[in-house]
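Hi all, long-time lurker, first post. I run a small reading group and we've been trying to get comfortable going from sequence to structure in the token notation. Rather than ask abstract questions, I figured I'd post a concrete chain and ask someone more experienced to write out its structure so we can walk through it together at our next meeting. Sequence below, copied exactly:
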Amino acid sequence: MYQTTYHRASSVSDAVKVLGEAEDAKLVAGGQTLIPTMKQRLAAPSDLIDLRHIDEIKGIEVNGKDVRIGAGATHAEVAENQALAAVCPALCHLAAHIGDPHVRHMGTLGGSIANNDPAADYPAGILALGATVHTNKREIPADDFFAGLFETVLDEDEIVTAVSFTAPEKAGYAKFPNPASRYALTGVFVAKRADGVRVAVTGAGEDGVFRAGEIEDALAKSFEPSAVEGITVAADTLMSDIHASAEYRANLVAVMAKRAVQAANE
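-- Answer (accepted) --
Happy to help. Here is the structure in token form:
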């Protein structure tokens, strides 16, 4: 690793201040992506700003159907939160199947969506739930937040502080995991809300997470696994790599959608 200067931020404003003053600073929460990248010398920030000790971005609040999860909440905390499980068990299920125990106890929700890995689980959940991403500067609808592979609309001096959403009537998540990394080769999150059905797909799109409109329309008519029968997902905008072809992923989108709906109805 290259030499870097470590900063332990005590507040969001403190982190923003250091971010603005440093030559090429990077934010680190759980460090599950950034630290390995630095070890491989694919990133060499002049400064590292540690967000793990900022209390204002931690915690999970559930008030009726209204949910607010701090950006600093770990995957394990989301997975194990009983209040959240009572209103949106699908998100707990998603968090419980990220990586391995080490990753789940270190990685954070905010870090995951800010990094926007195309095979990460949380982007599908946040997008399907129609969540709002809160930062130190503004509130961003999930539909506007993700901008492509490893890209979001966050400004350089902007820090994710929380995510909020209204718990859906029903929701489910199913993924086909890479057996080594447990990243999603394809993952589908479905959410039935008062205003309709939202379906988000991760691990498959060339531009990262996306909504599957054709599946949404079918499930809006009948929120049953059988509603997805006969739907053919186009492969021309999906990824092909050493793990799976675009055609294989296209088939997985439909299969995982069925499984997600079945889980939502259980």
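A couple of things your group might point at:
Residues 246-264 form the longest helix (19 residues).
The chain has a mean pLDDT of 94.
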